[in-house]
Amino acid sequence: MQDREVVEQVRPAAEVMNNRITEVLGRDIATGALAPGTRLTLVGLQESFGVSRTVIRDCMQILEALNLVYSKRRIGIVVQEPSRWNVYDPRIIRWRLSGPGRNEQFESLTELRIAVEPLAAAGAARRASQDQRQRLLQLACRMREQAADPEAFLAADIEFHTLLLDASGNEMFASLGGVVSEVLSGRSRQNLMPEGGPRPEALDEHEAIAAAVAQADPAAARARTADLLLEVEDAILRRHQEPAL
Question: What is the pTM of this model?
């Protein structure tokens, strides 16, 4: 019994260490601090982080699964070109949004949303369950009620858009829930939300989208979602073009 308790105490500590190292290396790669072609060694990483080879191996397996690095015999661990990365993984999105290329990442992700979410909304209008339709209406209402509370508003916004993708009935769209969650969270972390809280027009659009889904009106759901996202794109582009103070 004592041995089992020791194992249970050690496991969380090891997981925390693995996560910390993976976060540091993943962010360094995604932000360009470790350039493509950079060679890493297990010994060098052991010394840098002061951990065992087993810990470093575990972290490298995670980064390899994300296609951020690859291992080659007699060469070591090599940082991959961005074109090889699993760019839809929420962790990579979060890391890229924390670096100097965040503007380009926001733009590409917003373009992805423009391409996908209007179709997802139309699908939701056709296929959503009654509970899902009702929940979208509730979330749109909650967003207006909690507009002055950034954290509560963000939570409702994330749930609204991930539910819209899930309710579409298209498993490919539903799998992008984590991507959209990171985009919305990233906008808040990078202070890209409108000053003074969400715009009234955006709140109106969310309510209109929810109403169109509830009324089983695919054309309206698609059009209102497209309007919302085009406004988001315009706001992001304007913010990026503003001169630095």
Answer: 0.85
